[in-house]
Design a protein that fits this description.
heterodimer, A: alpha/beta, nine-stranded parallel β-sheet, B: alpha/beta, Rossmann fold, 2 domains, six-stranded mixed β-sheet, globular
Chain lengths: ~260, ~400
């Protein structure tokens, strides 16, 4: 059984660009249209956020997008429908990312099965504890060929990074700094050292650098140190201000890649 | 102990540490060290000295004669309202700041709803000379002006939480975000038995002094450490956890948790979590949670700003689940009437949170031989404005 994430990382070792956006934002039915434009603009992978009322790891930009999406009635069931519609239109991997509670209420097993059937390739559930995953869900996601990515941050110990590496499938999400999500203009020397340390660990899985990537400088730095970059908040800001999704998305990706 | 947290941080199906990886090192450090730290003789000596000479413990167990007459039972009030700063909250903040110091932390953050926990945190930070930031929902800041100024007088920076509905839940979100952004030098003093493991257990242990004293005092008073009932109000559940703690395994002691029904459990404006909640994950633990079918957290309502939290601590969720604690609820009106009644019968104006526990006297069938202890968790000074607005006295 093929998994598009594994295939992507096998075919492309560097400069992977993954873009995060919140499902149902700015307009409920934009989820699929945005993905199509992102692929056309040269993006390698998308991470679609499941909106939640209390996103504690997110800064103001993504918080606001969550609230707007929820106010418009976005939920897990609708998102899965949008993905069923989207899947035939794009080739790149689709990752769903979200806080655990909405998934738990939908039913974790039901969610994983339906997501996999809809053509989702991977999941990121930042507040799902590792031991819960191993005990209750690893068998399930493995059987569905759903890749699971965990986060690591500059304060994650080396032993734990190794543990996360051994349990991840697909890629590792390296958070660039100890922070919530949000744009920063460049990476500090300390952050660069952290990326170098990760590189030197020769992990089994490739890592993508996310949080704080907002422009060509940070994107290029992330690509130099890791397999690529994840961009979220600055893309949400682009969507929020957009009058013409197609033009603005292409312009956004172009300015990132430089 | 049968109701103790297990090694994975669970009480039955509830608890755990559902946190983003960025918080993991902090939580791991706390989890691996809190028991070691708090049972060091030196820690215990400092903690007990502060509880005695600074907080004013032991707090009296007062036989409320006129209240007893009215309800035809023997009713004692555990006077946590006489603690320094006016509520039980300080038992926990004293404990946690001593833990924070021993972990080498330099700064303190906290969340607060009505402001009692914020004031208790600001107080211990002043006492220990530590920098303190308290997050408080913008709406709560407007509603609880005097407590905001108390914190500021104590040297704390009060930061308005502007996200969501701008109340306790949002203040907690902001405090967690702050902690993610400042992971090494900062300790987060959570004010209730909520949050990721080990917080619920740590806070319950610090508050357990309440039931420890009740046992001793009852032994002296009536020659028997066991009451028939213990009543306590439950928002997140810290005062109830403290008042129940040493009775949990004494199953002949009936434990009554009183939640805020707001305008009525089925009115759509309520905070009665055990009646309205389902298992879910918020603020780092799996617990009973008021939420929509889609798993979005619902904003609760109560006239008391200290009870309008959409969850309860995982220990309480478990105690509810296994039937060890009977949960009842009191509406705004019932609580306000009970507050006035206690004022008139005993000369004690209780906090409106606490008034909910008093209101439960009407909901439990008591017999003349019953000995009842009500945890009088806080005093009503902070609520004068609400009493005045309610006006029926």
């Amino acid at each position: 059984m093929k998994n598009r994430i594994t295939e992507l990382f096998a075919a492309k070792k560097k400069d992977i660009l993954s873009v995060f956006y919140t499902a149902g934002f700015p307009i409920q039915n934009d989820t699929a249209a945005i993905a199509v434009q992102l692929e056309a603009a040269g993006v390698d992978m998308i991470e679609i956020g499941i909106p939640f009322s209390d996103p504690i790891a997110d800064g103001p930009t993504i918080q606001e997008s969550n609230k707007i999406a929820l106010d418009q009635g976005m939920n897990v069931g609708l998102l899965l429908n949008q993905i069923r519609e989207l899947r035939p239109q794009i080739k790149m991997p689709i990752v769903l990312m979200g806080y655990l509670n909405p998934v738990m209420q939908y039913g974790i097993e039901k969610f994983c099965k339906e997501a996999s059937q809809a053509g989702v390739d991977g999941l990121i559930l930042p507040d799902l504890p590792l031991d819960e995953y191993v005990k209750h869900y690893k068998e399930l996601t493995d059987s569905l060929n759903l890749s699971i990515s965990f986060l690591i941050s500059p304060t994650t110990s080396e032993a734990r990074i190794r543990q996360i590496d051994s349990l991840s499938t697909g890629f590792i999400y390296a958070v660039s700094s100890s922070s919530t999500t949000g744009a920063k203009s460049e990476f500090s020397a300390e952050q660069q050292l952290y990326f170098k340390k990760l590189q030197a660990m020769h992990l089994k899985h490739p890592f993508l650098i996310g949080f704080g990537i907002s422009n060509h400088t940070t994107y290029a730095q992330a690509c130099e140190q890791g397999a690529g970059a994840i961009v979220g908040s600055s893309f949400i800001t682009c969507l929020k201000n957009s009058k013409d999704l197609k033009t603005d998305i292409h312009q956004f990706v172009k300015s990132l890649k430089g | 102990m049968k109701f103790e947290v297990d090694e994975r941080g669970y009480y039955g199906q509830f608890g755990g540490a559902y946190i983003p990886e960025m918080l993991y090192p902090n939580i791991e450090q706390l989890r691996d060290n809190y028991l070691k730290i708090i049972y060091e003789p030196e820690f215990q000596a400092e903690f007990n000295d502060l509880l005695k000479n600074y907080v004013g413990r032991p707090t009296p167990l007062y036989l409320a004669k006129r209240l007893s007459e009215k309800y035809r039972a023997t009713i004692y009030l555990k006077r946590e309202d006489l603690c320094h700063t006016g509520a039980h909250k300080i038992n926990n903040t004293i404990g946690q700041i001593l833990v924070a110091k021993r972990l080498g932390k330099k700064k303190i953050i906290a969340e607060t709803g009505a402001g009692q926990h914020g004031v208790a945190t600001a107080t211990v930070c002043a006492l220990m000379g530590m920098e303190c930031i308290v997050y408080m929902g913008k709406l709560d800041m407007d509603r609880q002006r005097p407590n905001v100024e108390r914190m500021r007088i104590l040297g704390t920076k009060v930061v308005p939480a502007l996200s969501g509905n701008m109340t306790l839940k949002d203040a907690t979100n902001e405090a967690m975000r702050h902690w993610i952004n400042h992971p090494t030098d900062t300790h987060y003093i959570i004010g209730s038995v909520v949050g990721p493991h080990p917080y619920p257990d740590m806070v319950a242990r610090f508050q357990s002094v309440i039931s420890e004293e009740i046992k001793k005092q009852l032994q002296e008073e009536i020659g028997n450490p066991y009451p028939d009932y213990v009543f306590a109000c439950v928002g997140g559940g810290s005062n109830a956890a403290g008042a129940f703690y040493h009775f949990l395994n004494d199953e002949h002691v009936q434990l009554i948790g009183v939640e805020a029904a707001g305008k009525g459990v089925d009115s759509g404006e309520s905070a009665a979590t055990t009646a309205l909640g389902k298992p879910g994950v918020l603020h780092g633990s799996k617990t009973l949670l008021m939420q929509t079918e889609d798993g979005q957290v619902v904003e609760p309502y109560s006239i008391s700003a200290g009870l309008d939290y959409p969850g309860i601590g995982p220990l309480h969720a478990h105690l509810f689940d296994v039937g060890r604690v009977q949960f009842v609820s009191a509406t705004d009106d019932e609580a306000m009437n009970a507050g006035i009644e206690l004022s008139r019968l005993e000369g004690i104006i209780p906090a409106i949170e606490t008034a909910h526990a008093i209101a439960a006297l009407d909901k439990i069938e008591l017999s003349a031989e019953d000995v009842v202890v009500i945890n009088l968790s806080g005093r009503g000074d902070k609520d004068l404005e609400t009493y005045i607005r309610w006006g029926k006295y």
